[in-house]
């Protein structure tokens, strides 16, 4: 009901919607409408009520609730089902549970705050309230296990495009899962998999974006390595808009990838947005550090590094440090 009311108010930007029109559209009494308006005001929506004119939406709070995201979302798969929590340990953990219980592909789990947000290899992901996008998508691609990591690369292309569009500043991909603005990380991707034999059952694609996190709010150890979209653009960006932009950029790339194109069909797009190739790097792999020049990425998303002794190494998984 509140979603319908908000939708009607948004359809009349700056103008009034009469109480009568709302009653008719929603099939409830004026008192019921008033009660919902009151609840919306309590949630932070600034709604003006004028006798004989009706209601007018003056300002929306920066929320990532299902209704804020859904209004204006132009996708047919991603985000068609949205699960919102104000506070949660990790949206990836919740998405795993929902996926095991049969949640459909494209389900989006999102929270205002995470108390145990995680990165790769058990690292923490700083996820304060009211200022970031902490979300996970449930995907069910027909993929062999060996290809699952490519989803991270496909997502990185979508993220770089969305964040460049939102800020007007070029975002760069650092292989495999970071999006940077001028060497500082504003987004991380964590893909987790549930698989049996060689077939993926589902993937949980976790995405963390620092949207309006004030720089001074980052903990000491992140001060010099993290940034947020607000810091890059100079003004805050509504978080629901960020979510929609990501969903809308990702959906066509994901479809191209799963409908037979594979990573080979995304590779050139990845290369255009990357800031990894051509640089001297240290790849911290499970086998130890590998130092050399990041030469290329192959059609499977594997990073090729020319070592100092001239040999080329294939890197399947690593943390990359720029030398
Ligand atoms: P990662 O392992 O590549 O990066 C983690 C590292 O990034 C940390 O060790 C720290 O140095 C740095 N870091 C931590 N928090 C931030 C931050 N807010 N901004 C910039 N740098 C940071 C990256 O892992 C993958 C992160 C995915 C996070 C999403 S949020 C929604 C979903 N749920 C969940 O628990 N994780 C994912």
From TrEMBL:
Residues 19-38 bind DNA. The keyword Transcription applies. One of its GO terms (molecular function) is biotin--[biotin carboxyl-carrier protein] ligase activity. It catalyses: biotin + L-lysyl-[protein] + ATP = N(6)-biotinyl-L-lysyl-[protein] + AMP + diphosphate + H(+). Its EC number is 6.3.4.15. SUPFAM superfamilies: C-terminal domain of transcriptional repressors, Class II aaRS and biotin synthetases, Winged helix' DNA-binding domain. This is Bifunctional ligase/repressor BirA.
């Amino acid at each position: 009901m509140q979603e319908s009311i908000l939708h009607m108010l948004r359809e009349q930007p700056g103008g009034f919607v009469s109480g009568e029109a709302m009653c008719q559209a929603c099939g409830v009494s004026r008192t019921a409408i008033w009660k919902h308006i009151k609840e919306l005001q309590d949630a932070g929506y600034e709604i003006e009520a004028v006798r004989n004119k009706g209601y007018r939406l003056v300002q929306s709070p920066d929320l990532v609730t299902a209704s804020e995201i859904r209004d204006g979302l132009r996708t047919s798969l991603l985000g068609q089902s949205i699960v919102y929590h104000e506070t949660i340990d990790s949206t990836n953990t919740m998405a795993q549970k929902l996926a095991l219980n049969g949640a459909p592909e494209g389900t989006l789990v999102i929270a205002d705050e995470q108390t145990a947000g995680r990165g790769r290899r058990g690292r923490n992901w700083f996820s304060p309230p009211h200022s970031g996008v902490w979300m996970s998508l449930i995907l069910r691609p027909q993929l062999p296990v060996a290809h699952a990591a490519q989803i991270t690369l496909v997502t990185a292309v979508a993220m770089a495009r969305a964040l460049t569009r939102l800020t007007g500043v070029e975002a760069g991909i650092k292989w495999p899962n970071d999006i940077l603005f001028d060497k500082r990380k504003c987004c991380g991707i964590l893909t987790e998999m549930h698989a049996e034999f060689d077939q993926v059952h589902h993937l949980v694609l976790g995405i963390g974006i620092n949207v309006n996190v004030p720089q001074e709010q980052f903990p000491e150890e992140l001060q010099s390595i993290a940034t947020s979209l607000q810091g890059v653009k100079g003004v805050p960006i509504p978080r629901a808009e960020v979510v929609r932009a990501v969903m809308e950029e990702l959906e066509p790339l994901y479809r191209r990838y799963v409908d037979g194109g594979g990573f080979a069909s995304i590779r050139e797009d990845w290369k255009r947005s990357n800031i990894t190739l051509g640089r001297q790097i240290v790849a911290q792999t499970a086998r130890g550090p590998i130092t050399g020049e990041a030469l290329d990425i192959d059609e499977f998303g594997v990073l090729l590094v020319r070592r100092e002794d001239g040999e080329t190494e294939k890197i399947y998984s690593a943390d990359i440090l720029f030398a």
